[in-house]
């Protein structure tokens, strides 16, 4: 049976960059499940469908296909009706729409099997919010990665500025806090550590230290 590492935690804790490096070091596949919610959000925005529970969202889910594939560098590509939308889903607007639409039960149900199928066929580090609690409750290793909101907002701010985006730290911090609250307080699959997860706080760790810590925790538990 392939090995599954469930990596959950709030937005901006560094999950994706840390997990990508750890996956490479361990020769696992890195699966970014947030990209799937972002893609459904993008599909809704394009059709002018509000990201709230409604017959319109359910209809939208019947009309779209979402697939995951990997390029030659092993990077995840997400396809919406066959179109590579991996770049288009990385904006602050797409983050907020994803956070809202991820609270729609039909959306979570729609993405469940796709996520599980990745873990049936590959050794994975799967990054999300409910991987250890809902998607892969039998994962061999469950990690809950977190950091203080200010540290997370600071990192995201730097990332977006480096990409040439015109953003303000205060707006990012507000977004982080709002998304934390959306993600933690929704009725379905809220963001919370699985009972058997290992907590890793990266507030005081730099990137390399965080990667080392995650690799150590994984090796100790598989
Ligand atoms: O990890 P991210 O920022 O790309 O995720 C985008 C949104 O999707 C985030 O606000 C919460 C939601 N999400 C979720 O509900 N469950 C997951 N497994 C992954 C992401």
Verbal overview:
The structure is a single chain. The protein has 222 residues and is α/β, with parallel strands linked by helices. It contains nine helices and eight strands. The protein has a five-stranded parallel sheet, sandwiched between helices. A three-stranded antiparallel sheet has the order 3-4-5, with helices on one face. Strand 4 (76-80) and strand 5 (83-84) form a beta hairpin. The longest helix is centred in the middle third of the chain and has 17 residues, at 105-121. The relative contact order is 0.22. The structure holds 2'-deoxycytidine-5'-monophosphate. 2'-deoxycytidine-5'-monophosphate (DC) is lined by residues 11, 33-34, 37-38, 95, 98-99, 102, 128-130, 179, 183.
Q: For the residues shown, what is the average pLDDT?
A: 95
The percentage of residues in β strands lies in 15-25%
Task: State the major sheet.
Answer: 5 strands, parallel
Shape: globular
Q: What is shown here, in short?
A:
The protein is built from 9 helices and 8 strands. The chain has 222 residues and is an alpha/beta fold. It starts with a strand and ends with a helix.
